[in-house]
Design brief:
Layout: E1 17-21, E2 27-28, E3 33-37, E4 40-43, E5 51-56, E6 60-61, E7 71-75, E8 79-84, E9 94-99, E10 102-104, E11 114-123, E12 126-130
Parallel strand pairs: 8-10
Antiparallel strand pairs: 1-7, 2-6, 3-4, 3-5, 5-7, 8-12, 9-10, 9-11, 11-12
């Protein structure tokens, strides 16, 4: 394409809540950590080629559906609470996905999927993470 010769609208969206196509047979629950793999939304997991997308805004069930048959909305900003092994002394450290409801402060030897920074430890085993700048969305 050639350079612009007049103003244009970039069709901007705020990007804080976006819809992504679900993987075949995926079920994602509201509040779950989410990733994309091969372009489709899946539950959060520490696995090869997963990219963190955010936190599920709502439950979506694509059981029996093909890739992209449904879409799920994810939040890409804010602080969210998950089960985790971070302690108060770890505040500020990067956190990694263990599964769709658990984070860890220890980078896995393989397939570490960063999902945010620890900002608070409300109780033992409970971690509040800030996902801004980590979520794909």
């Amino acid at each position: 394409m050639a350079n612009l010769t007049a103003d244009r609208s970039s069709l901007k969206k705020d990007g804080k809540l976006i819809a992504l196509p679900l993987a075949a047979n995926a079920v994602i629950y509201k509040g779950a950590l989410t990733c994309v793999n091969a372009g489709y939304l899946i539950r959060g997991a520490s696995a090869a080629n997963n990219v963190f997308t955010g936190v599920a805004y709502e439950k979506v069930d694509n059981t029996g559906g093909a890739n992209g048959a449904k879409s799920g909305r994810v939040e890409s900003d804010g602080t969210h609470v998950f089960a985790g092994d971070g302690a108060q002394a770890d505040v500020g450290k990067e956190m990694y996905i263990t599964d769709d409801q658990t984070v860890t402060k220890t980078a896995p030897a393989e397939n570490g999927v960063k999902c945010g920074r620890l900002v608070d430890v409300p109780a033992t085993g409970i971690n509040r993470i800030k996902i801004d700048g980590y979520a794909l969305a």
